[in-house]
């Protein structure tokens, strides 16, 4: 690795002095050589995720923890979860239907052909008599007493206008009873359950619901999220200057939250005072408040004091993960949670996936992604106590750890397909690592951001 690359691999996970000493000294308060975690109140990474996932079940959400279901027009329901079974409101097809363009025929041929044909979307036709045929389009209602549909490529009319079966049918020259007729109720009967509660609403679910007679779906709504971006040093546009830097999280968080199932109801810059933050949180009626910055112990880190003043219950106060260890989760009201993301941008992404993702998933009743692992192409340096989340690119069946993975850097994650979960102590080349997918790599950018 070049010196430049080594610098790019900087991780704020670089040990602080206290942590480094803890590795070489005996545990000061104990009798063994096992180092004690310097942030003993911090929650282990898997536990933090579990707490975030179950947090809404202890609020007003009740046992399931999800938001109260509502009737949602089909056009707005993509990505939601069904809160009532999708039960057919009609038989499908709702009438006997022609499966092909051709002729509806009655009895054995040859047939005399009626002058007027039958198109899709037209009401009942007069019954056919034995030996009669009528031109019919795919999807058109079958006239009563039709015995089969003869495909247009399997029939020809002679010079007297009589219809014959050509040799092309199998067996040749025959049309079997019921052929190319979709009988009413073939797919379902009115009242049949088509999809159970908990089904994610995908494009085919929308189509199925419309076909089955629905205009709205009973679904769990998207959790409403207010984003408060803290930091008087942040610029909304232009180049950094005079100690001011661009706000990277204002543009990053809203679409990512939407991809996690949220409706982003506000994105606001909040001044670096406890009062401003207190007012912003108490005025919010969102299901989830996400703050960025101000989680550590600096002179303008106001998240903890504001939460104390509100009387919020801290569910997670620091997590044993790098980057992002100062992240927090609080219950601000019975039906409102606050996720405090650290200000360093990759640390904020870590908090988003550790705390916001499971919290939003429960509120929206979305299914948990299937955990999966891949071998790491290169070894990854570990933190002595904490889990590391490291941006990786997926190349074939291996995960390639990316440089520029420090907490203040976005260059690695911007090129990544996933985050690898590296346990304390690190991972060797070829070792299997759990992967957290980024929503757009699995779902496609158009699907997940609508
Ligand atoms: N004494 C300690 N200092 C720090 C610790 C610690 O444990 N003890 N932890 C460090 C770690 S790790 C992180 S991460 C940060 C978390 O700090 P805060 O959440 O309080 O965030 P800020 O201090 O407000 O900002 C940190 C850093 O990030 C920049 N920032 C903030 N918001 C944005 C944004 N929207 N877009 C781009 N960059 C942003 C900010 O300018 C700072 O450079 O604390 C460490 N310190
Ligand atoms: O190292 Mo800190 O944990 O970036 O967030």
Automatic annotation (TrEMBL):
InterPro entries: MoaB/Mog-like_dom_sf, MoaB/Mog_dom, MoeA-like, MoeA_C_domain_IV, MoeA_C_domain_IV_sf, MoeA_linker/N, MoeA_linker/N_sf
Reaction catalyzed: adenylyl-molybdopterin + molybdate = Mo-molybdopterin + AMP + H(+)
Protein name stated in the entry: Molybdopterin molybdenumtransferase
KW Transferase (keyword) present: yes
General function of this protein: Catalyzes the insertion of molybdate into adenylated molybdopterin with the concomitant release of AMP.
E.C. designation(s): 2.10.1.1
The organism's place on the tree of life at top rank: Bacteria
UniProt keyword terms in alphabetical order: Magnesium, Metal-binding, Molybdenum, Molybdenum cofactor biosynthesis, Transferase
Gene3D superfamilies: MoaB/Mog-like domain, MoeA, C-terminal, domain IV, Molybdopterin biosynthesis moea protein, domain 2, Molybdopterin biosynthesis moea protein, domain 3
Taxonomic source organism: Streptomyces atrovirens
Family membership noted in the UniProt record: Belongs to the MoeA family.
Pathway participation: Cofactor biosynthesis; molybdopterin biosynthesis
Cofactors: Mg(2+)
Domain MoaB/Mog residues, every copy: 226-362
EC supergroup of this enzyme: transferase
């Amino acid at each position: 690795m070049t010196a430049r690359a080594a610098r790019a691999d900087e991780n704020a996970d670089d040990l602080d002095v206290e942590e480094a000493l803890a590795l070489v000294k005996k545990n000061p308060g104990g009798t063994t050589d096992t180092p004690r975690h310097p942030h003993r109140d911090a929650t282990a990474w898997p536990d933090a995720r579990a707490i975030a996932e179950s947090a809404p079940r202890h609020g007003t959400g009740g046992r399931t923890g999800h938001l109260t279901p509502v009737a949602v027009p089909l056009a707005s329901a993509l990505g939601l979860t069904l809160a009532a079974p999708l039960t057919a409101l009609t038989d499908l097809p709702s009438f006997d239907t022609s499966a092909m363009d051709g002729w509806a025929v009655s009895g054995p041929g040859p047939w005399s052909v009626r002058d007027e044909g039958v198109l899709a979307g037209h009401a009942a036709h007069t019954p056919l008599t034995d030996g009669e045929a009528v031109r019919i389009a795919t999807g058109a209602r079958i006239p009563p007493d039709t015995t089969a549909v003869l495909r247009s490529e399997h029939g020809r009319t002679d010079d007297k206008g009589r219809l014959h079966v050509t040799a092309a049918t199998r067996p040749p020259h025959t049309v079997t009873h019921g052929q190319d007729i979709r009988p009413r109720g073939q797919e379902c009967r009115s009242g049949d359950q088509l999809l159970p509660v908990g089904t994610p609403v995908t494009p085919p679910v929308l189509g199925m619901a419309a076909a089955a007679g629905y205009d709205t779906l009973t679904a769990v709504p998207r959790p409403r999220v207010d984003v408060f971006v803290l930091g008087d040093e942040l610029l909304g546009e232009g180049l950094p200057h005079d100690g001011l830097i661009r706000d990277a999280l204002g543009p990053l968080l809203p679409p990512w939250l939407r991809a996690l199932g949220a409706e982003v109801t506000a994105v606001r810059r909040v001044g670096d005072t406890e009062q401003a933050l207190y007012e912003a949180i108490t005025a919010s009626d969102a299901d989830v408040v996400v703050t960025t910055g101000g989680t550590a112990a600096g002179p303008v880190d106001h998240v903890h004091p504001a939460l104390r003043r509100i009387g919020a219950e801290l569910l997670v106060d620091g997590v044993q993960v790098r980057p992002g260890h100062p992240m927090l989760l609080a219950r601000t009201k019975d039906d409102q949670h606050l996720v405090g993301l650290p200000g360093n941008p990759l640390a904020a992404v870590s908090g988003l996936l550790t705390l916001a993702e499971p919290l939003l998933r429960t509120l929206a009743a979305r299914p948990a992604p299937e955990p999966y692992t891949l071998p790491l192409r290169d070894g990854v340096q570990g933190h002595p106590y904490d889990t590391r989340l490291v941006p990786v690119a997926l190349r074939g069946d291996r995960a390639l750890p990316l440089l520029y993975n420090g907490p203040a850097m976005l260059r690695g994650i911007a090129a990544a397909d996933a985050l690898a979960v590296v346990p304390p102590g690190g991972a060797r080349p070829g070792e299997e690592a759990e992967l957290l997918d980024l929503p757009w790599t699995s779902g496609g950018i158009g699907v997940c951001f609508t």
